[in-house]
User: Fold these one by one.
Assistant:
Number 1:
Amino acid sequence: MAVARQRIHLPPAAWRRALSTLVTGKMWEGDAIAQFEKAFADFIGAPEAVVVPSGRAGLCFTLEALELEKGADVICASFAYPVVPHLAHRLGHSVRFAEIEMDTLGMDPEALAATITDQTKVVIATHLYGVPCRIREIAEIAKAHGAILIEDCAHCFGASVGGTSAGSFGDFGYFSFETSKPVNTMGGGIVTVKDPELAQRMRKIARKQNPNGFKWLARRLLKTSFEATVTNPLIFNLGVYPALRLTSKKEEAAERFASGYQRDETTLQHRMGRYTNYQATLGLKQMASVAPMVERRIANAERLMDRLEGKVRFQRSNDPDVRSNYMLVTTLMPNMLEVSRRLLAVGVDSKHTYMRDCTGIGDIGGDFPNAIAAEQQVLHLPAYPELSLETIDGMAEKVAKVVAEF
Ligand SMILES: Cc1ncc(COP(=O)(O)O)c(C=O)c1O
């Protein structure tokens, strides 16, 4: 059996809860929102959390709540989710970049120290693919220069540094609840906030968004059901895998299917509106069960990394007290595209070109060789919790053989 690059599920009882919240009039507003915010803030160890319509909307609302002047100096990581610097730029801020390091693939604290000035208003640090960046050093540098620190936690629910959860180091931390993320409420997100006054301001901004209607709800349910179907191992093997094999021979199609199975949206389209009480009920339910899934994902990732030790270079943290959730197990492959094609041929579907070298945004120039290398080399291998250790071992053997061909 071929192994799909990801496994997506409908949140437990998604259709039933949609119906019951609809019937009881608690689809759009209700108590679950405040309960979910409290449960999430407690889990992370943050004073406050505010639900938002998406991770990217969380970033926009944060920048709005900070009431920055136009042209404020904002520093992002050179290799990240492009929509992040893109939105900061579109909101009228002056975006600059600090280079990443090749181990964590997160912002390099030394590069930040060389880039930041006392004029810098915001630093956005990303914990990519569930491996925390060197956030303690980054937080110290930001604080020394009086800059606000925002953690991009879209991937890192369940990851921690020195026993402290990612998302509680910065002034803000935004999480995404898209379908491929550790907590999946079919879209949406949450922002952890240190200052209760700023949290209130964020809440006001979030609550004044127009509610999304039934069309939106139907679209989210159908989209997630579709993703759950195509990543189901049986359907994947019967239909998707043969189609991927065919299309992988065509350059253009290979690019199209690079990240998820569809093109990544890099706009706010379908990502605004108001987070619903219905989604909060889905999130609350998962808070109780997500920890064992994170544990299994970590066990699979560590097994795969162990089996390929010395043969493949992996993204990892060198700090012994860092716990990564390995939302995506990430390798650095010099012949990434060819390796991914060969892996597909032997039954291992992989993912690439999810994050990008962002340094073209804002047109400021500069030299960012690590961002270029990461974009060219990052390849994600499947290690999601549903895979057995036997499957992981079989896959490790195949990967080792393919890598040895190059
Ligand atoms: C690193 C990172 N930041 C931010 C986001 C934006 O999250 P959302 O899709 O919920 O807007 C994503 C989405 O995949 C992401 O990967």
Number 2:
Amino acid sequence: MNTLKTDVPCNMDPQTLIQTVAADLPEFEARDRQQTKYTTCYMCACRCGIKVTVEDNQVRFIQGNPNHPINKGVLCAKGNSGIMKQMSPAKLRAPLLRRPGTERGAGEFEEISWERALDILEQRLAHIRATDPNKLAYFTGRDQMQALTGMWASQFGTLNWAAHGGFCSVNMAAGGLYTLGHAFWEFGDPDWDNTRYFMLWGVAEDHSSNPIKLGLKKLKERGAKFVAVNPVRTGYQAIADEWIAIRPGTDGMLALSMVHVLLQHQLIDDEFLIRYTNAPQLVVNTPGQKGDGLFYRSEEGRIQVWDLNSDTFADASRADIAPALFGEFTAPDGTPLRTSMSILVEKYLDDEYAPENAARECGVPAETIERLALEMAHVAFKESITLDIEWTDWAGRKQTQFIGRPVSMHAMRGISAHSNGFQTCRAIHLLQVLLGTVDCPGGHRPSRPFPST
Ligand code: SF4
């Protein structure tokens, strides 16, 4: 008969089994010596709220904090194992030195004092600094000390330094900033309450954060469509309504090809573009000459648009005008100008971005690219959502409302691993503004105040 380690027969009835095993366990529930500390989990970047039970100054166990707005009590397996960060027997507690005469990789180390470790390092680093500081490659892990470690590296003189964030969280933050206007979940997330079509771009499958799980649950309950763009179908992708199996590193092209389709079918939110973006602002159009590509400004330095009401140039931040979204104009001194939107249309209507060409690069069929763009536009243009939120527009005025379409897009950390990073985030953001998505309030800098203000 199989037995447990405690010699308890496996076929014992569950109740008796629990009592028998419990009798064997050490006494650890000394509740009178326990305290609950409230803090946030640091096992990933979500910062879920946690309740940590501490006994005799030692972490006993960790629970989710039901009152925390991010995770509402949910704690993932990684968060649960946060206790190992403090208690793991494998945790380094002193410097280790490879035993003299042993091979690298053999794992033969001896513990040495901090003084000895510092002496060894000082000797080695002094030599590198005196000869060629760039020979020091310096990398630090996840911490809140990157300003200090970076300062140390630059004082040392090496260019070869990096930290965790450059490969992971900074990319995640950049993705969040471009697509949602928030770097991390504690500052905000996709508009789970209004979104009817949600596209998740390049989110790392190991980053199954509680806030996103809770958000996806909300979307699913409401019957919103969830599309995941990712080379692998694990994590969130596994529960997506549609998984776009993209070739790694080509997300930017997919987004720009969808931009191409929207422009081709004239499925763009003109009003949104005029109200919230710099699309109508005028740009100098003198290829190969001085000033080309710069915004056209008045003598006072104010960026100009063409006002359709008065048929003349006007300050872009004025509320009482009707800026032209498209068009070519001539400044009083003869300088040719065109709107930012006209430049954008010319660029992305190019065949380079046609679904047939993007399909070859991304490994996503041309029909799928076209269908996704049209499907999103169909959902977006069926209704608009008015959010009563406070924000500051481009002109520095306080606004109390935001009007957007019920489509959300979120790009995140995995973007660094299998796509074009910042460029991709910009391309996805371009899709958002053309559709006028509801997530845009913080995601870009609105250019004009509401006419009513
Ligand atoms: S998602 Fe999990 S690991 Fe990340 S902060 Fe929340 S509980 Fe911790």
